[in-house]
Amino acid sequence: MATVKKIPERMCVLCKQMKPKTQLIRIVNAQGNVVVDKTGKINGRGVYLCKCKDCITKAVKKKNFAKQHGFDLTEQIVAELESLIEQ
Hints:
30% of the residues lie in helices and 28% in strands.
C-alpha cells in the first residue's frame, strides 16, 4: 500500500482561512529583522498571509497589525510580497 503524505496546512492571519502551506507566504520576525521567508525554514516568529492582493492590502491598512503580531510591514516587505504574487 502506498502511504498518503500529509500536506501541512496553516491559517492566514487576516482572512482566517486554512490553506496548504504552499499557497501561503510566511513573514518572519527573526531577531528584529522582518523578512519574507521563501523557504519556510527561517527561525523566528512567523505569520502566514495568502498569496492574494486583498490580504496584503489588508495587512498594510490594518492599524493594529504591528501590535498583534509584533512587527510592522515596511514598504520594502510589501514590495517583495507584491512581486511574489505576480510570479
